[in-house]
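Record type: monomer structure entry
Structure origin: computed from sequence
Chain ID: A
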Amino acid sequence: MTTYAPLVAVLLCCISAATASPAEAAANYIQIENAKPGTSEWTLTKPGYSTGVIEGYASLTSVNRGGQIRLFVNTSEPTYTMDVFRMGHYGGLGGRR
């Protein structure tokens, strides 16, 4: 007589994982993201207080996965570089590049 109990258990496990609620799936994405290594390099060490150095802001403070945020920059410099950080816990470091 052949037993199918282990196969049934594996199939049930796969079905329950595939039918996770959107909230559970989102929690998993957040947990995966928050487990990544962080950095404290996002902290401003020499903020530009004088007018006209470089100014900027983002169109949104938060966006869903796959969404877009527009970045607006004002400067008289012909070129500049920009580092973007995602704010979060990241092991207590506060952000990730």
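Annotation 1: The chain has two helices and four strands.
Annotation 2: Residues 1-17 have pLDDT under 50 and may be disordered.
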